[in-house]
Amino acid sequence: MLDYTRSSHPSNCLLAVGTYTEAMPHVQGSGLGIHLLEFDAATASFHERQVLRDALTNPSYLCATPGRLYSVCEKGQDAALSVFAIAPDGASLKPLGRYQAPGADPCHVSINPAAQQLYVSNYSSGELICYALDSKGLPDGAPQVIARQGAGPRRDRQDKPHVHCATPSPDGSRVYLCDLGTDTLACHHVLSDRLESEPRQSLQSLPGSGPRHLVLTANGEQALVVEELSNTVSLYALDEPAQALCRVSTLPPDWQGVNTASALRLHPNGELLYAANRGHDSIAAYRLHRGAPWLEPLGFVPVGGRTPRDMVLTPDGAFLLVASQDDHFIRALQLDLQTGLPQEQAQGQPFRLHSPACLCPLP
Fold first, then answer.
1. I need a labelling partner for 139 at 20 to 30 A (CA). Which of 145, 154, 194, 355 fits?
2. What is the pTM of this model?
């Protein structure tokens, strides 16, 4: 077991970076495709190994399992799921196949290894897509399409369902989705080759909050949800009676500007939580407790670039890697695990690449 109490000897890792390659309403995309980088922990720097450009439009979200990388191509028409082989030494990615994806603007992809399933979340058309995977990790047959109904109070952002992520439980028996358009968290049970089409459980967040991404605690009993429109993080108990336990802001109390919360990451130690702010352009840090008040705000750290769309923790928990979408760079922040905050004096130099949207450490 890794010791997360100290990070005096952090380790290197490989990282795939998805980008926006075309303009969309929320981004002037100018990226090249998928970048394969090596992160050098000793210098907090990045070194490029490969750029995949061919036939990749807006590979805005990625996920990985040993030997495989998956990417959605975020488009309103002709959306797709792409699969790549990861070389045994991690030095390269090789395209294995491109599969048409039903619906419009897929914005998230996740893998359920226990069930051999892959999930795609469609933002604009509002469906959850489930692919069964074969023994090689490739889609097997036509995907299941789970459509949703409803709307929220914000007419500009909640005119209909907008599924933004789907996260499997640690044991692979359930999948939890965030529907930003209807302010809903829904749980679907996993069957042998598909999902139950109707959710077994639905939780409503506050009207107009816009749940975007969620992470589950290691035991699968609680969900932490970042709410994009209200700039909040909420903690939910998932066992009956399922309920909201607390809600905290992602912003300082005196902030008056426009902001939308984006990424949410739970540290491997299960105690530290980080949420990214686009507008305030910062990382909010929290400590997760086992009882009330549950989430303790620890502070805010500026990332030094506009629109931090995504962030990830290195597998050893020593660094937080942040992608500044509109200032076109990624940067490493070394963490002080005593305070829970990134060390501002220990920031690595920006690594320049255009329109980074997703950071995905490779196993």
1. 355
2. 0.95
